[in-house]
Amino acid sequence: MLSKAADRSPPASLPGTAANPRPVPAVRLDGVVKRFGAATALEETWLRVEQGEFLTLLGPSGCGKTTLLNLMAGFLEADAGEIFIGGDLVTSTPAYEREIGIVFQNYALFPHMSVAKNVGYGLRMRGVPRREIAERVDAALALVKLSGFSDRSPRQLSGGQQQRVALARALVIRPKVLLLDEPFSALDKNLRGAMQVELKEIQRRLGVTTVFVTHDQSEALSLSDRIVVMSAGRVRQTGTPDEVYRHPQDRFVAGFIGDVNLLPASLLARAGERATVAIRDLRRDVEAATLRGCAVGEEVDVFVRPDHLAVRQAGEAGTLPARVAALVYQGSHIDLHADLAEGGRVVVRMPGQGALATYAPGTPVGLVVPQGGLAAFPARDAAPSPLPQGPPDSRPSSLPPEPGSTR
Amino acid sequence: MRSAIRRRPFLALFVTPAVLVAAAVVAALAAILRYSLHAYLPGSLDIGGFTLDNLADLGRPIVLRALRDTVLICFETALITLLVGYPVAYALVRTRSVVLKSVILVVAVTPLFLGEVVRTYAWTVVLGHAGFVNATLRQLGLIERPIQLMFTEFGVIVALVHVTLPVMVVMLAAALAHIDRDYERAAQSLGAGPVRAFLTVTLPLSMPGVVAGFTTAFAWTFSAFATPQVIGGGKVSVVSTLVYQLGLSSFNFPVAASLSLAGLVLALGTMWLVRRATRPLEALGGH
């Protein structure tokens, strides 16, 4: 009801008008909280999704991303806070009046309806004339390259085709927001890549605001305009893929996005926005923002990407002493696992295959730590935010977040 | 084929009990068939020579009425059980409250643990002239004289619904539990309110359970004896009570046997028709 009223008065919601210097976001969450019994599934969350944006909610299972999606969809009711869609307050609007398109993880195509009936369902519920339904269903099926599949049963379709139907069904109602709940998790790897490209193309062509939920950080990095990294019911960081990858604001984000190594260090000095840390006898410059609450002299953890490290001869000046533990051939690159002299293991990602012959296991080497691209956080004992895996006493250690994430 | 059987060395052992049971059933049916085709000797439990007169007896109005009433009572009972059982099963599957779930389950399923006879006598207490229903209505001042509930078709159907309800609820609950909640959510996200989402998605998808529950309730009611006998009290005549009357009151075994066979044929025929009519519905829910 609310939303229909707003449709009739578009000037108020036009972006960039004098009355609204900041465009109306497609979705806005103001201090939304969701609890299940005593457990808080989503702590107070503030979020803006801009018009036409592709926003990804990224985090491990149980981080609250699906709860957040269900709150936007209207399947759950917030315990506190307000939700706006297209400028309209929808906090207590039921799902069927929110005009949102959803693609479910298992697609949820109605098994008792043909492909065309599935796609046309939302239009029938809106009382769209039959002829227009037929036209719009045809157009939607053409968009997802499934023209000619109208009369098939969903059961006769492959996983990828079912997903296209689900996408067409969600888009045909011209939703204000498209919600995607881990839509690629049921597809095999090759198909997944192709579908991602296609989804991104369709999303850009239609300019539909999209909120995408995934636990796959590579999927998030490659598709999103912005990523919201979540863990334990909290938003840890919001930013472009480059921002969250290069400038993690939180040790959870640093560990979850991409592969990362952890080097033990101590805080030497702090000056304005920069701080100096010492990794053994190497001095490095890092952002100070992530070291809040950490006093000079205290232990810190320095995060460095495997591809930012390099290997040199042992004893070379300005390197960290280590010993080669294993070499793992990965096709396009080689992962060299090395044990640091002071304990802990790191991974160095090296292009080319020369390394296989050069660094036999057991060889002492020196690791080159880059000047930039480092992030430092208070040592784990001091930091409240937990890392996804690894017992606390294993620090420092390399942190390949997930087996599948090694690219 | 032979080699396939040899690969299951205990097959003969396992099949033996089934064969024995089947043999007993076939023997009983054969005996009934034999009785139905022989003459009734009044005053004797023996039977006379071969005759088709018993089958002609089935054409008598009292028998035809019993056959018709049986089908009607079965149909009405199955339908009412379905209408009462569906909401109960839906609540059972969908409620998040563990307490409510347990209460529904206990209330819906405990009747199964009481025999049909016990339940039927319980209903005589409820439906009688001084029974619970009449006493309550009288105290509320809604009626002056007790309503006739015992010895009516209505009373019989009420008691029969109680008998078939647990099975219906269990079968519907199983069907509903298999329907992914995301179907309903998808329908809602596409603009269907709760009622339309239920009618266009959940209900069609639960059709296999509806058909299975309906046919089971129907067949169960067809064979019910204690309930129509006690609650009907001779005023409601169905196949099972008429067979009992003919066989054990008049000792007319041959006609009783013919009527049994007629009932069996009618039951199988109706079930076949119900199945046929509901096949398109059942295809709806195939997951």
Automatic annotation (TrEMBL), chain A:
Q: What is this protein called?
A: Spermidine/putrescine import ATP-binding protein PotA
- Compositional bias, Pro residues, is annotated for 385-407
**Is Cell membrane given among the entry's keywords?**
yes
Give the matching PANTHER family.
SPERMIDINE/PUTRESCINE IMPORT ATP-BINDING PROTEIN POTA, SPERMIDINE_PUTRESCINE IMPORT ATP-BINDING PROTEIN POTA
SUPFAM superfamilies cross-referenced by the UniProt entry: MOP-like, P-loop containing nucleoside triphosphate hydrolases
- Which parts of this chain are annotated as the region Disordered? 1-21, 378-407
Q: Which UniProt keywords apply?
A: ATP-binding, Cell membrane, Membrane, Nucleotide-binding, Translocase, Transport
What's this protein's family per the entry?
Belongs to the ABC transporter superfamily. Spermidine/putrescine importer (TC 3.A.1.11.1) family.
Which SMART domains does its entry note? AAA (SM00382)
Classify the source by domain of life: Bacteria
Q: Which InterPro entries match?
A: AAA+_ATPase (IPR003593), ABC_SmlMolc_Importer (IPR050093), ABC_transporter-like_ATP-bd (IPR003439), ABC_transporter-like_CS (IPR017871), Mo/tungstate-bd_C_term_dom (IPR008995), NA-bd_OB-fold (IPR012340), P-loop_NTPase (IPR027417), PotA-like (IPR005893)
User: In which organism is this protein found?
Assistant: Methylobacterium oryzihabitans
State the encoding gene: potA
Q: What does this protein do?
A: Part of the ABC transporter complex PotABCD involved in spermidine/putrescine import. Responsible for energy coupling to the transport system.
The uppermost taxa in this organism's lineage are:
Bacteria, Pseudomonadati, Pseudomonadota, Alphaproteobacteria, Hyphomicrobiales
Q: Which reaction does it catalyse?
A: ATP + H2O + polyamine-[polyamine-binding protein]Side 1 = ADP + phosphate + polyamineSide 2 + [polyamine-binding protein]Side 1
EC numbers for this chain: 7.6.2.11
- GO MF annotation, one: ABC-type polyamine transporter activity
Annotated Gene Ontology cellular component terms: ATP-binding cassette (ABC) transporter complex
User: What's the subunit arrangement here?
Assistant: The complex is composed of two ATP-binding proteins (PotA), two transmembrane proteins (PotB and PotC) and a solute-binding protein (PotD).
Task: List, for all copies, the residue spans of the domain called ABC transporter.
Answer: 27-257
GO biological process terms on file: putrescine transport
Automatic annotation (TrEMBL), chain B:
Membrane spanning residue stretches: 70-93, 149-177, 197-218, 253-274
Note the InterPro entries from the entry.
Answer: MetI-like, MetI-like_sf
Single GO BP term = transmembrane transport
Q: Which PROSITE patterns match?
A: ABC_TM1
Membrane-topology descriptor: Multi-pass membrane protein
Question: Where does this protein reside within or beyond the cell?
Answer: Cell membrane
The cellular component terms of Gene Ontology attached to this UniProt record, alphabetical and capped at eight, are: plasma membrane
Keyword match Endoplasmic reticulum:
no
PANTHER family named among the record's database cross-references: ABC TRANSPORTER PERMEASE PROTEIN (PTHR42929:SF5), INNER MEMBRANE ABC TRANSPORTER PERMEASE PROTEIN YDCU-RELATED-RELATED (PTHR42929)
Task: Say which family it is in.
Answer: Belongs to the binding-protein-dependent transport system permease family. CysTW subfamily.
Name of the molecule in the record:
ABC transporter permease
